[in-house]
């Protein structure tokens, strides 16, 4: 899929690089993660996120939020309703979108909204293609 996206965007196939370290995020009351995305266009386009605590029981707030910025259009927000143990593979920077004049690049950013109470524990794991079976 990463190679297909690269072709659609007219870019070189993503190179296997040293995988960034997994990140365990512990957010307590009023903690949040601001909108961010991978800045390196050559980076592998996917990451895995997982929620390790139970919404409504361990914490309130702390929703996983993504925005998609499309050329000459308003950004589109999306909330991914994760439960404890849920994981999702997300685009970490850009994805191709088919438009009237062919494919174009949509920029994706992700964040965690403010935790209103308790503690939210999540995991971010950058994927880089190295772990794929031969």
Would you give an account of this structure?
The protein is mostly beta strands. It is built from 1 helix and 10 strands. The strands form 2 sheets. Strands 1, 3, 4, 7 and 10 form a 5-stranded antiparallel sheet that branches. Strands 2, 5, 6, 8 and 9 form a 5-stranded antiparallel sheet that branches. A hairpin with a 6-residue loop joins strand 5 and strand 6. The chain is globular and about 45 Å long. The mean pLDDT is 87.
What tags apply to this protein structure?
five-stranded antiparallel beta sheet, globular, 134 residues
How do you describe this structure in short?
By secondary structure, this protein is mainly β. The protein has one helix and ten strands, in the order H-E-E-E-E-E-E-E-E-E-E.
Which residues form runs of ≥5 with pLDDT under 50? none
Strand content: over 45%
The radius of gyration over CA amounts to: 16 Å
Q: By helix and strand content, what is the structural category?
A: mainly beta
Net shape: globular
| Overall residue-averaged pLDDT value | 87
Largest sheet: 5 strands, antiparallel
Q: Give the SSE string.
A: HEEEEEEEEEE
Give the distance, in angstroms, between the N- and C-terminal Cα atoms.
16 Å
Number of strands: 10
What is the helix content? under 10%
Compile the SSE list and pairings:
Blueprint: H1 2-8, E1 23-28, E2 33-36, E3 46-51, E4 59-61, E5 64-69, E6 76-80, E7 87-91, E8 94-99, E9 102-112, E10 115-126
Antiparallel strand pairs: 1-10, 2-9, 3-7, 3-10, 4-10, 5-6, 5-9, 8-9
């Amino acid at each position: 899929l990463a190679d297909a996206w690269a072709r659609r965007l007219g870019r070189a196939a993503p190179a296997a690089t040293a995988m960034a370290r997994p990140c365990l995020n512990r957010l307590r009351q009023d903690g949040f993660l601001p909108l961010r995305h991978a800045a390196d266009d050559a980076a592998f386009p996917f990451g895995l996120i997982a929620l390790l605590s139970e919404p409504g029981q361990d914490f309130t707030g702390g929703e996983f939020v993504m925005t998609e910025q499309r050329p000459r259009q308003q950004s589109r927000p999306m909330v991914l309703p994760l439960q404890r143990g849920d994981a999702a593979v997300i685009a970490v920077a850009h994805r191709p979108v088919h438009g009237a004049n062919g494919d174009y690049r949509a920029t994706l950013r992700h964040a965690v909204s403010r935790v209103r109470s308790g503690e939210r524990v999540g995991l971010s794991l950058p994927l880089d293609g190295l772990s794929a079976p031969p």
